[in-house]
UniProtKB/TrEMBL annotation:
Alphabetical GO biological process terms: glycolytic process; tricarboxylic acid cycle
Span of domain Transketolase-like pyrimidine-binding: 651-822
Principal subcellular localisation of the protein: mitochondrion
Keyword Oxidoreductase appears in the UniProt entry: yes
Compartment list: Mitochondrion; Nucleus
Gene Ontology cellular component annotations, sorted alphabetically: mitochondrion; nucleus; oxoglutarate dehydrogenase complex
Molecular function in Gene Ontology: metal ion binding; oxoglutarate dehydrogenase (succinyl-transferring) activity; thiamine pyrophosphate binding
Enzyme Commission code(s) on record: 1.2.4.2
Cofactor(s) annotated in UniProt: Mg(2+); thiamine diphosphate
Organism of provenance: Esox lucius
Name of this chain's protein: 2-oxoglutarate dehydrogenase complex component E1
Keyword Metal-binding: yes
Length: 980
């Protein structure tokens, strides 16, 4: 904003393209973006002194006027119009200016000579004053939040930058104005709404209204948004005079919600003072904030809201927003409460809830889901987004008008957790957008014990939201009406633009991180101030009583009534003896379970298909269903290869996947396949999306052309994110049991950056929250000398997490890499016809089956190593002495079928062979189960790589040496003696 005296570059002459560039700059400036000098303008520079008219004028201001003129020549004063027109026709420097006609009707935005008492103003002063006022207005729009009264404690340590904020009546000199100008009247530019119905205001009024709009309890960050319409929309919401007005009835409703929020926490504190509950004290206005968002969204047509939040305030949200029965919450504090059969459950401030009820403000039904989640802060963000996307998909809500999400965050986690950024970056992607999320940050101005100055590098914890141009509304949480207003605006923004928005509730945490914690150890000065802080309910009630909105008696009756509700619920809660987690379900699957809570079927039905159906799907897989569609020559060869397999009645992995997906789609089962590069496949094997080589963005998905009434197939490349995308797909799979939702890692190794989702949601979700989910993970796995980051999907981790419950479905599919093109890795149609089933164990059907009593060794294995073992066995002439049996399903372990194999070869020793290192892979899991199968009567030997810290070597020669060594061990009949 400094008024630099320098040279200015002027454009001679102006071309059509250059005009477009200038118009773009003008729009960018009006939207709040920075100006940049165009290339043609940089090609010509002249001293400002060359034009007497421009002498002493700021370079930036001339650019502003020039761009405004390009946008609309009538929007600038006639003198500027003449000057730029002469320049356009090639006038040399110093000759472009002409005296304008008398000022009879000045253009909007300039000082009116009539308003100045009829005196003819100095033209240079007139232009500079206009631009100064415009710059002043813009300064408030950009930096007003820096001096807004946001911190209830008035101790904010936010450090914006070293430059002082030059705003206020006493700072007008910074803009080239004088305090004597405060009484002058100025026409207002079109980029502000502070005038309301007035087109001109005195400078004093302008500053006062800007301070009321941007420097009170609300601070608005939006000028980084590069869309003029959106910026104007926000300006109108906050600058228009009198916008933050509420009726007496609205104020009474707000007070009633504050009473419930505050007294709920006080009740818990009285009854269970030594229990952790992560109360909401210091941010009680969160409850009316959420209810305001829900009310406004319901008015706009939303009938389902999915929410995610951390533990602070969760019980209050469950009680007063979701409206869970209070006795069900209070019974959680009973130490004698027994767990039901369906799982161990989780701590009370991790649990979720699903509830459909009437919204009393709109008299419309609304479904509210608060997702259960662990202490891993922000991990629930992508899960909520995925479930929201699924609900939108299943109800045909393509614009997000019926289903939406609300995410709550803590300030330290919002700034510190990378999954926040990953989730934001999904917000505008076609296959992941939920058409706008309302983010509410409970800004305690502290982490657990960590000061913000040590917890983040940004000024605000919310700065990450700027990456998707989300407006950020900071608000003092001790001003409930300001909170209510920004939440109304946030809900309207989401309904209007279907984009993310952030509400930053600047508050404090009255207690420590939990009720047992002592915050004075680390923040003594902050908590001295907090102890002196009057509660927000008391402050707001006093204010409304003074205004005559409610009487003291009415206020006290409201408190007494809610306290009575809590006491009655507390009495009922003592009758609860067993904790039923099913009461806390956040994603029920209606119709999937019997009355006893068990799935209607756990059997594995036949997966076979009639041959004509296999052939039909195979023909689709090897063709291009669209006319005049040009595919790549290399892809033509791949499709011809598929057609040849169809003729030969065999399938490789890619075609087999096509058969499986195609048959499910034909039956009406929706399939969603997501992950990095899944459309083509990392190894160029899948090609489910074909690209026209001549028409940009024209694609074809043959899988969607299988049958007229088939279910839709969604296949979508994701952003380069594992944590965020797997969480999203987990949430999507949570919405319905009647879908196949798959996430594929680029390489199986890369799932480790999504380990939090696996450890906290997939593995224990059923036990902790009775949360059903059908997510399938496809993880390419195999040791092929490609190095430690492209070899192992770490199967040992998944096996360790399994509880071997016979009713548990397999979730993890270790998919091949080199086997995608291995000539022996194919299956006949005979393995896929009606009556066939998934084979948990594939026995050896070769020569060993002729005389099983003469077989000396059974080698059990799984995965790619089978083909290396069979090749080596063939080369060694051991086809009659060594049986090789594949265990296709590791967990639940197929004891019954493995026993059939061990009984078949009574004289054979048992070997488990794997290509993974001994401390990795499957050995530690399989060995005790093999021993159990044979009642420990026969030893179980190991053949494979020795223990190692890394998953694989990066040296190809070393890889081959290791391979030869363990194959020698596996097939050497004299290799093992003594106990295993």
């Amino acid at each position: 904003m400094h008024r630099l005296r320098t040279t200015v570059a002027i454009l001679w002459p102006i071309t059509v393209n250059q005009r477009a560039q200038g118009q773009s700059q003008a729009r960018r400036f009006a939207a709040g973006g920075p100006l940049s000098t165009s290339e043609p303008m940089r090609n010509y520079t002249a001293s400002l002194s060359a034009e007497p008219f421009l002498n002493g004028t700021s370079c930036n201001y001339v650019e502003e006027m020039y761009n405004a003129w390009l946008e609309n020549p009538r929007s600038v004063h006639k003198s500027w119009d003449i000057f730029f027109r002469n320049a356009n026709f090639g006038a040399p420097p110093g000759a472009a200016y002409q005296s304008p006609p008398p000022l009879v009707a000045p253009a909007p935005g300039f000082v009116d000579d009539q308003l100045m008492g009829g005196a003819q103003p100095n033209l240079e002063k007139l232009v500079e004053d206009h631009l100064a006022v415009q710059s002043l207005i813009r300064a408030y729009q950009v930096r007003g939040h820096h001096i807004a009264k946001l911190d209830p404690l008035n101790i904010s340590v936010v450090n914006f930058d070293d430059a002082p904020v030059m705003l206020g009546m006493k700072k007008v000199a910074f803009y080239g104005l004088d305090e004597s100008d405060l009484g002058k009247v100025f026409r207002l530019p079109t980029t502000t709404f502070i005038g309301g119905s007035e087109s001109a205001l005195s400078l004093h009024q302008i500053i006062h209204r800007l301070e009321m709009a941007y420097c009170q309890s609300i601070g608005v960050e939006f000028m980084f948004i590069n869309d003029l319409e959106q910026c104007q929309w926000i300006r109108q919401k906050f600058e228009s005079p009198g916008v933050m007005q509420f009726t007496f009835e609205e104020k009474r409703t707000l007070l009633a919600r504050m009473v419930r929020s505050t007294r709920f926490e006080e009740f818990l504190q009285r009854k269970w003072s030594s229990e952790k509950r992560f109360g909401l004290e210091g941010c009680e206005s969160l409850i009316p904030a959420l209810k305001t968002i829900i009310d406004k969204s319901s008015m706009n047509g939303v009938d389902s809201i999915i929410m995610g939040m951390p533990h602070r305030g969760r019980l209050n949200v469950l009680a007063n927003v979701i409206r869970k029965e209070l006795d069900q919450i209070f019974c959680q504090f009973d130490s004698k409460l027994e767990a039901a059969d369906e799982g161990s459950g989780d701590v009370k401030y991790h649990l979720g809830m699903w509830h459909r009820r009437i919204n009393r403000v709109t008299d419309r039904n609304i479904t509210l889901s608060l997702m259960a989640n662990p202490s891993h802060l922000e991990a629930v963000d992508p899960v909520v987004q995925g479930k929201t996307k699924a609900e939108q998909f299943y109800c045909g809500d393509t614009e997000g008008k019926r289903v939406m999400s609300i995410l709550l965050h803590g300030d330290a986690a919002f700034a510190g957790q990378g999954v926040v950024y990953e989730t934001f970056h999904l917000s505008n992607l076609p296959s992941y957008t939920t058409h706008g999320t309302i983010h509410v940050v409970v800004n305690n101005q502290i982490g657990f014990t960590t000061d913000p100055r040590m917890a983040r590098s940004s000024s605000y914890p919310t700065d990450v939201a700027k990456v998707v141009n989300a407006p950020i509304f900071h608000v003092n949480a001790d001003d409930p009406e300001a909170v209510m207003y920004v939440c109304n605006v946030a809900a309207e923004w989401r309904a209007t633009f279907h984009k993310d928005v952030v509400v930053d509730l600047v508050c404090y945490r009255r207690n420590g991180h939990n009720e047992m914690d002592e915050p004075m150890f680390t923040q003594p000065l902050m908590y001295k101030q907090i102890k002196q802080q009057k509660g927000v309910l008391q402050k707001y009630a006093d204010r409304l009583i003074e205004e005559g909105v409610v009487s003291r008696q009415e206020y006290e009756e409201d408190i007494a009534n809610y306290d009575k509700i809590c006491e009655e619920a507390h009495a009922r809660s003592k009758d609860e003896k067993i904790l039923h987690i099913k009461h806390w379900l956040d994603s029920p699957w209606p119709g999937f379970f019997n009355l006893d809570g068990q799935p209607k079927t756990m059997s594995s039905p036949s997966t076979g298909l009639p041959e004509e159906e296999l052939r039909h799907i195979g023909n689709i897989a090897s063709s291009v269903p669209l006319e005049d569609f040009t595919i790549h020559g290399g892809l033509s060869r791949i499709l011809k290869g598929r057609a040849a397999m169809v003729d030969q009645r065999v399938c490789d992995w890619a075609l087999g996947e096509y058969m499986a997906f195609g048959s499910l789609l034909k039956e009406g089962t929706h399939i969603r396949l997501s992950g990095q590069d899944v459309e083509r496949g990392t190894f160029s094997h899948r090609h489910h999306v074909l690209h026209d080589q001549n028409v940009d963005k024209r694609t074809c998905i043959p899988m969607n052309h299988i049958a007229p009434n088939q279910a839709p197939y969604t296949v979508c490349n994701s952003s380069l994110s594992e944590y965020g995308v797997l969480g999203f797909e987990l949430g999507f799979a949570m919405a319905s049991p009647n879908a196949l939702v798959l996430w594929e890692a680029q390489f199986g190794d890369f799932h480790n950056t999504a380990q939090c989702i696996i450890d906290q949601f997939i593995s224990p979700g059923q036990t902790k929250w009775v949360r059903q989910n059908g997510i399938v993970l496809l993880l390419p796995h195999g040791m092929e000398g490609m190095g430690p980051e492209h070899s192992s999907a770490r199967p040992e981790r998944f096996l360790q997490m399994c509880n071997d419950d016979p009713d548990t479905f397999p979730l993890i599919v270790l998919t091949p890499k080199s086997l995608l093109r291995h000539p022996e890795a194919k299956s006949s149609y005979d393995d896929m016809l009606p009556g066939t089933h998934f084979q948990r164990v594939i026995p050896d059907s070769g020569p060993v089956s002729e005389k099983p009593e003469e077989v000396k060794r059974i080698v059990f294995c799984t995965g790619k190593v089978y083909y290396e073992l069979t090749r080596e066995r063939r080369n060694r002439g051991m086809d009659y002495t060594v049986a090789i049996t594949r265990i296709e399903q590791l967990s639940p372990f197929p004891f019954d079928q493995v026993k059939v194999e061990t009984d078949r070869y009574p004289n054979a020793d048992l070997v488990w062979c794997q290509e993974e290192h001994k401390n990795q892979g499957f050995y530690d899991y399989v060995k005790p189960r093999l021993r159990t199968t044979v009642n420990s009567t026969r030893p179980v030997w190991y053949a494979g790589r020795g223990p190692a810290a890394a998953p694989a070597t990066g040296n190809k020669a070393a890889h081959l040496v290791e391979l030869k060594r363990f194959l020698d061990t596996a097939l050497n009949l004299d290799a093992f003696t003594g106990p295993s």
